[in-house]
Amino acid sequence: MECVFGMVGKGFALVVADSSAVNSILVHKSNEDKIMVLDSHKLMGASGEAGDRAQFTEYVQKNVALYHYRNNIPLTTKAAANFMRGELATALRKNPYMVNIMLAGYDEETGPSLYFIDYIATLHKVEKAAFGYGSYFALSMMDRHYHPNMTIDEAIKLADQCIEEIRSRLVVAPQNFIIKIVDQDGAREHSWRRTTKD
User: What is the dihedral of CA 156, 3, 181, 102, to 10 degrees?
Assistant: First the structure.
């Protein structure tokens, strides 16, 4: 029962993901980090089939690094989102990746941004988003409490409210979550929200 959600605040973007690795009715581990640091100012939260998620996120990470190496300038967050959308659209007609992406980034010119990309290559720039079964609860909490000028502390408080709602309302809820933030100082892990030991 995967869940990834994110939001954009005043000068930052935040991504939260559950950390369970599940197959059918089995939980293999509860400390899987599903938010990859693409480069110094980009985060990519992903959900989907474990193999597709790992293969696609690593493929994107290496290609973003290759672009930076070849051209000596990093991709903007918008350009990275469009690259991912293009790769998913191409794969859709051959061997599709069953992966949903939430890309958060910070660019000097445009500030923080958040992109929602699903497995059928739909791309949207959003202020808040969620996918997975937990999205029903996270989106309702964000609809009620989110505002565009949130501080980091307000966004963390809202993320904690979303996590608590998911844990209390979803029948088979993931117990552990990771929170990462990207702002002008770069992409970094903020904290874990754990209820079980690894």
Answer: -140
Nearest to 127 by CA among 144, 110, 109, 142: 142
Q: Are 91 and 32 in contact (CB under 8 A)?
A: no
Give the global pTM.
0.91
**How many C-alpha atoms does 25 have within 13 Å on its Cβ side?**
0
* Dist CA 149 CA 166 (whole Å): 24
User: Which tens digits make up the pLDDT trace of 68-113?
Assistant: 999 999 999 999 999 999 999 999 999 999 999 999 999 999 999 9
3-state secondary structure of 173: coil
At a CB cut-off of 8 Å and minimum separation 6, what does 11 contact?
A: 111, 112, 183, 184
Here the tokens at position 111 are: 């500030």
